[in-house]
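ugh ok so i messed up the first submission bc i forgot one of the chains. this is the corrected input, ALL of the components this time, i swear. 990 residues overall. if the numbers dont match what u have on ur side tell me asap before i send this to the collaborators (the ones from the other lab, u know who)
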Amino acid sequence: MHPKSLKGSIKYQELSIKTFNMKELSISALNQSLKNKDFTSVELTEYFLKRIKKYNKDLNAVITSFDEKALNSAKLADEKIATGAAPDLCGIPILHKDIFCTKGELTTCGSKMLANFVSPYNATVVENFEKSGLISLGKTNMDEFAMGSSNETSYFGVVKNPWALDCVPGGSSGGSAAAIAARLAPAATATDTGGSIRQPAALCGVTGIKPTYGSVSRWGMIAFASSLDQGGPIAKTSEDCAMLLKCMASFDHKDSTSIENKRPDYVSKLYQPIDGLKIGLPKEYFSEGLHPGTQKAVENAIEVLKGLGAKITEVSLPNSKLSVPAYYVIAPAEASANLSRYDGVKYGYRCKNPVDLEDLYVRTRSEGFGEEVQRRIMIGTYCLSSGYYDAYYKKAQLAKELIIQDFQTAFSDVDLIIGPTCPSPAFQHGTKSDNPVEMYLEDVYTIAVNLAGLPGMSIPCGLVSKKPVGMQIIGNYLEEPAMLQVAHQFQNVTDWHKAVPGNF
Amino acid sequence: MSWETVIGLEVHVQLSTNTKIFSSASTEFGNEQNSQANEIDLALPGTLPVLNKAALEYAIMFGLAIDAEINNESVFERKNYFYPDLPKGYQTTQLEKPIVGKGSVPITLSDGVIKNIGIHHAHLEEDAGKSLHSESHRDGYSLVDLNRAGTPLIEIVSEPDMRSAAEAVAFAKKLHSIVTAIGICDGDMSQGSMRFDVNISVRPAGFSEFGTRTETKNLNSFKFMEDAINLEVNRQIRVLEDGGKIMQETRLYNGVTKKSQSMRSKEEANDYRYFPCPDLLPVHVSKEFINNLRKDLPELPENKKNRYKEQYGLSEYDANGLTENFLFAKFFEDSMQLFDKPKLLANWILGDVSSKLNQANITLKDSLISPKHLVELLKRIEDKTISNKIAKEVFEEIFEGKGNADSIIKEKGLSQISDAKFLEELVSKVISDNPNMVEDYIKTDEGKRKKKLGGFMGQVMQKSKGQANPQQASELLIKHLNDIID
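and heres the new structure output, hopefully the right one now
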């Protein structure tokens, strides 16, 4: 029986919940169902709040859930939908990475330093979604101040990968990726400074996009490395990401690095065939260090794209080996200044009984920041110190220019660049946390995109030992529509994005 | 041995924009602590700066006023250090690419010679908040007020071109006159609107190499600056003549005790770890943008001075005095609209008005006197209702807000007596009461008699309670005395 024929029947509500598999519905289907009144936003919100309650103790993907507040927003959304004048996506629940400030709610950034911080204002991203009527369900776990690739640096504990609970979900947006993989929400926000959307999306088998730097406002998004940080959505599919990004991206006069031009149309190109699209495979991304299973899965995916009419060529990004070292100068340098404001004076953690000002600073910051954050502050401070600035910071900026050049040369021949998102599938907790350099190499394929300010996305393209593999799609500036299009066309003919980890 | 003093200045000028340099909070002075600090000024997580366009325009206007290069690309950098009144843990400022490049400011030395003081550059930056330390450190706390945090500043850095405290003060006053005339700073030094850091070194006269310099920070009056420089120059000479060495250090001058002390040595100086602020893109200004500001630039003190000399026939002294202080210049011009007597107005503004303001320790902006008040008073001198002397008395009352010229003259019965009959009787009485003075007058050579008139005038004024029209009275005295001689 078609669900719509149940409208008006007494058993409608009860039946509808049984009939619709809410957790597997796309954003577009949810949107349609809410407008058709197949079910209400309150029902949908209750459904996901229940799932969070049920599964979060296993996953630790969510730090705060907004239960009552979310239901109140859902009620308002239902009223708006009833008027027939509700904007697109009104009534759809969304989780926010705990790096986005949410008015009146805890915003911890995964740190002890901000474990008690209640933001008095909303991030523009949160504001954009709430204005459209999306329901903020809560805040997702993350690496402390977004510094990490495994979600093991969070003050609120490690996040588990829904595909293998003994493995990491990736990071820093590990909570958002794990939550989408376990279907705790239909949508989540995330941020990406060196791969923090794409790498966890890959390890958790979900779709995530980091748009062109300047597309999404950074107002209210707690800074790690300002010149690289960029927000984006994580969801089940490319189409979902496109619809979310449309709402999320906007010019914001409160962010001086926000692009003033109108954002491209992320959605309408999705449904066009990719026949004749030129795709480049960087040879440096298919070399030593790449897990053979990951390589195979990506190569198989490329065959699929070939079948859809894409033209595949090899390209070279000769300076990609500079990206990790350049990143680990620039990002810590900016972070060392960005994190100076956490000094125990105004808000956040303050050490007990400081004897003088220096003691207040030293103990507040030693006790409030975790090991990885302290390591990066020290690296950054060192790189900027008098006598070292030219050798590190200036040189890293030069490397960044070379990397930008590499991409521009490649994009003169191809429309998009495709490769693996990260070197291998999810690894077990604790296996890399004692070796920072090995952990930093997790982002070897993603970091260059941030340094160049380009858009990048990851989509699921296979499973290796029952763990997902991600394929990375990189576009030129503001070429998100083409990236989302190729991803959508791929998802049209494959089922990797539909795979759900067994226990969820 | 004779010594030469070398002085360079770093001048912090608070720009009089309505809002802060990177936030929309008000910059008004003197409100309740922390009431003018929004989420950006408090450096809440996730907040970002956006440059206030007015602050940029003001900085460019200053550059244009001193004929400096305006850099079409300038870059904000972060200067990192920890202090409780610096909420972000860094100050956003400019270093390698400041908005204003090289320029120069002419000063007039006491001998009338014009000397150009080089400007190395001027850059935009944000002010810090204020820390209020409790009297006794044992209280265990300090208070922080962030109302000032984020107030826009330009820091003007001079070349080491000054050779005495007097030159430094002349330069500082000239800068004050420029920034107030073009309206980018209220010039109120008591509220910290202009603050001076002075770099001082001495070297044996004739040497071309600079001596080791010290920096005396945060002087907020011309007087303190002059005293601090003289004190430091003498200290350095004393140290050197005793065979010692000058240490490169930062010093603090206490205007109350008139002493200075070392704050920190070069070794203790912070490594500020400057780097370009990634939250603010490089600032680009077009030629057109600059030209529009140039077109609308208010008249500069130097040009105004020359115009006053030419248009109103004022002396260098008067024209300079009026244009050095833009409030005086405005007062003068507003008064001229009502009463076309430039010399008389200049005398009064630079004389009585200025000295009353100094006595009250206020600026024209905060006083009750208006151009209308002054002109009403001067018109009563002009029409001989009161004498110049009485006018000074009336002015004091006006200055204190006790009324206008007419009401005070009336209330106190001060109007001048020009009644010929009354004066005739008065003069006759003074002459008949003082035969000795008359005899003395007659004995005096004709050419020197004028001097003797003062005694008679004193009596006339005393007997008329100062109200006799002095010119009429003196004419009558001469006439009557001449009648006796004849």
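quick check: Residues 1-13 of chain A have pLDDT under 50 and may be disordered. that seems consistent at least. The two ends of chain A are 26 Å apart (CA to CA).
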